[in-house]
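Hey,

Quick one before I head out. I ran the complex with zinc ion overnight. Inputs first:
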Amino acid sequence: MSACKVCHLDSKNHSKKLWVLHQQAKICTFCQKNSSEHSEKLWEMHKLAVEKGQFCPFHKKTEKLYPITIGSARAGIARVCRLNADQPNDVDFVQIHMSCTVCGLYLGSPEEDSADVLDGMCLQCFRTETEQTDIWYDIPHASKKEDVNC
Ligand SMILES: [Zn+2]
Ligand SMILES: [Zn+2]
Ligand SMILES: [Zn+2]
Ligand SMILES: [Zn+2]
């Protein structure tokens, strides 16, 4: 029995992969947050998004990654697309986004951060999908929390 330094839960509360993830404390290429701020699923989703986004459909190859900051707060990742043009227009930083698994639109930052919960969907699609299938979604958050505690 040992407690995790990252989330303070016992090692038993981790899957093998999540435990490794927490002990390594890696930085996510996609959102540049610590691995401890990811669930196992979210980590995989972000990793996949980078792998997919790194591929340039124009040059038909995997391109270099370059960390960028949009605005002042949010850090992101872009691929470096070299264009056949004069400097400084010869490089295009194409930001890598996750896109909604249902409608295909780019996800916003909060949606990317909770992609594991939203199953890679945008909030709108998530809402539509869950309304059709799950009743639990309409249970107010407060009562859901109580259920978890007891
Ligand atoms: Zn942990
Ligand atoms: Zn991430
Ligand atoms: Zn390219
Ligand atoms: Zn959507």
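The longest strand covers residues 74-82.

Talk tomorrow,
K.
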